[in-house]
Each structure stands twice: as structure tokens, then as C-alpha cells.
Amino acid sequence: MPASETTQRVAVAAVGIPLALAAVYAGRWVLGALLTLIAVIAALEFGRMAARKEGHPIRLLVAGGAAGFVLLATLFPAGGAAGAGFAGWTALLVLVAATAAIWTRGVTGQPLLAISTTVFGALYTGGLLAYGLFLRHLPGLHGPWHGTALLFAPVLLTWVSDTSAYFAGRQWGRRKLIPKVSPGKTVEGSLGALVGCVLAAAAYATLLSRFPSYRISLPEAIGFGLLISVAAQVGDLAESLLKRDAGFKDSGALLPGHGGALDRFDSLLFTLPIAYVFFRYLVGSGA
Description:
The longest helix is centred in the middle third of the chain and has 29 residues. It is built from 10 helices and no strands. It is mainly alpha-helical and 287 residues long.
């Protein structure tokens, strides 16, 4: 990696991490605004890639649909009504996309592709990112730092998984993982990601043990680390697949040295829902 790119990455991280921490601590409206912005940018990037591949997305609906999912999570961050809201919003999105396809695409404008890519793009970006709000506002939390600690669990572990994969692959990488999708990924890097993520999860469990609820045992931490690492790697590979299919190197140029929003948050899109399900239904809020 060139020195200039490394400097850019460090500068972005030095500014971005404190801002992200402040937004997560503030919760609901501030976090919702930040996630909405990220979702809209990611949705626009997706729309641009899909259009290059002649997926004919209705780009305004992709961005608006993504924003709608995050807005629902902001209005109902504890879940409950958000489930029905998500179902209703998805149905409405399909209806509007179909109506728009009738008037703007017609039979010759590949309406099936237009509707499919529009709805998928909104779900892929905003629908998955909205789980950050659900995780931050899980029932039974003990103050804002507790919610912040829970949300930063998948954020930190995703970063550890990616970083471990990079260094393990660089040091020991010999066998390609899925060369047709991502030529740089290796089996050794993937295994390194699993090991690094499990170790980080075990260490992070000691931090969560300071709170009366959502404590996790060592076996649970190991399982959580494995789940997060697998989800992070699948998320990374999924975005690589989309970019390769569309002929893109980066999804965008949002952050210097980091590429676009999808490049930066591709793994997190998959790990946030996994973390929410793990803490909400597998661990629970009991002391």
C-alpha cells in the first residue's frame, strides 16, 4: 500500500472513529441520521453499479427505500413495531417500483430487472444497516455506554477479522479462496480471520461482563467470534462479487484511501444483523 494512501487511511480513521463513537453514544436520532446518510450513499453506489450492468434500477427509489428502512428503525429502535413496518415498507417499495417500472421502463426496459434490483438494493443497504439502531437500543440496557459497547462488538470484531485476514494472508497465504470472486483472498487469510476474531471476541466478553445483562460466557464468545468472522467474510465477498460483475474496482470515492461507502461497510452490513440476533435471541437480557 502506498505511503500516501496509508496516511489518508490514518487521517480518516483519526477523524471518523471519534465521530462514530459520539454518534453511537448519542443514540437514536444522531445515530439514525448518520446511518441514514451512509445508507443513502451506499444505495446510490449500488444503483450506479447495477446501472453499469444494465440492471436498470430506479435509483431514486433505491436511495429512498434505503433511507426509509433506517428511518423506521429510528422511529422504533427497540424493535416491535419495526418488524411490521419493515414488512409494510418492503411491500410499498415493491408496489412503487412496479408502478414506476410500468411508466418509465415498459416491456422493452427490462422491468423485471428494474424492480428486482431496486428492491434488493434498498434492502441490501438500508435494510441491513438499520440493525445498528436495533442493536444500540436492545431492551434491558444499562445506560448509553452499554448500548455503545454492544454495537461496537460487531464493529470491532469485523475490523479484527478483516485485519487478521490481511496479515495472515500476507504472511502465509498460498491457496486461493475463491479466485473468480476475489483473487487476493486466501484460505490461510480466511483461517487467520477466524482465529483473530475468536480471540478478540473472548477478550471483548470481559468488557461486556461489567454490565448486568447481555453477558456472554467463553463458549458463547467463541461462537460469536466465529459467526461474526464468517459473516464479515461473506459480506466482503458479496460486495466483491457485485463489483466484479459490474466492472468496478471501488464502489465509490467517499473516503480517501477507503473507497466508497459499500467498500467500507460491506462486511458490517452482514455482521450487524448477526450480532442483533445473537444478543437479542441467543443470549437475551437476563442477568
